[in-house]
Amino acid sequence: MVTSGSPDYRDGGLEFAPDFVIGSATASYQIEGAAFEDGRGPSIWDTYSHTPGNIWNDDNGDVADDHYHRVDSDLDLMADLGLDSYRFSIAWPRIQATGSGPANERGLSFYSRLVDGLLERGIRPIATLYHWDLPQALEDQGGWTARATAERFAEYAEIAARALGDRVHTWTTLNEPWCSAYLGYGSGAHAPGRTDGAAALSAVHHLNLAHGLAVSAIRSAATNDPDLSVTLNFHVIRGDDETTPEARRRIDALANRAFTGPMLKGEYPADLIEDTASVTDWSFLRDGDTELIHQPIDVLGVNYYSTVTVKMWDGVSPRQNADGHKDVGGSPWPGSRDVEFLTQPGPYTEMGWNIAPDGLEELLLDLHEQFPDQPLMITENGAAFADEVVDGEVHDADRVDYLNRHFTAAHRAIEKGVDLRGYTVWSLLDNFEWGYGYSKRFGIVRVDYDTQLRTVKDSGKWVARTIRDRRTPSV
Asked: Which CATH number characterizes residue 258's domain?
């Protein structure tokens, strides 16, 4: 079993309130398959994954977990686990093949069936409107570097809310816009694979704008008074070098405050604009935009997996680039190429990410301090490990330990006053892990990609027991 040093974070028997929502999550392109069926148009991930060399083993999401055809049995599986909630994403190109125009009723019907199936099984539907699968037709017109994409996103949000807005409990506008902007347009590690710092910053703004416009659209279209949210992948930044404070400020501005500033405070950080002045003049930011972005939300989604350690590069020694993301040549840090990301001490998951449950507690406490009136929810947390099937079982002790320690961190944050509403484990199923294809398994349920057989892992049983008993199993 993977082990780690102090603090231990291995508490057992931790009680969670009856209204603390424990569930699991997936994303459309990673599980649905049926990429060319029922009117779905191509997304940037279809294009990117079908370009040789972009994905491990040249994998793609054409079939994935075949969830589109197996939705009923997957719903039964969720019910067997006793999930309080299921966080799924809607594939924009299933609703509008080209990202604009009339809705595709066959696409809406699939998600309506999914939502109805969740409600029939007593599972709270949490719908994410954007988990990275931008319609390719919109990318051809500029993608997230174009203001029009934010406007089209608001129209799509209204369509989805009119169709499902009498039943969906929580709407999440965007999942991890940091990845969409900086990995998609800056580093090239994600679709659409661009490597332009100015484009990445333009994408940051238009994703922020899309969020604000979508919140307004959903509030006007939904009829069941849903919760509104956004999910951000916060960077917990560490280091003990004398230059770390400056490096940390820069990365915090790019990774965290570029989104929380306009979304939660109604302004971009002045130091972010100053740091990136050599990259862009921010002319895409128009008067009144921050007011459009700054819309009240009911819950802030928090995705957490690991920490980063930084210092300023001296310009002489070999520069470390251990930021935890695939290096394909570009940079996800426009204006801060002189920040160095240091290799962190282990242990690590199969992704090479360090295991640091104390980072989750630190993050939750920091967000609570910054935004004391903002309820939080962990919308993703989990780990990839090299699972093995033995006699039809998956004894994933490392993942069980990982979850136990991070649930412990969350519980400690609650005890210190954090308004944490729930915990969503990533992910329900093994799936297409973006640039890593099918080589990394995050699921609490194993998927045999040849047969599509689902096998609940020990981690899935651990989650089910935690939900059933409203406490973590004793260790």
From this structure: 3.20.20.80
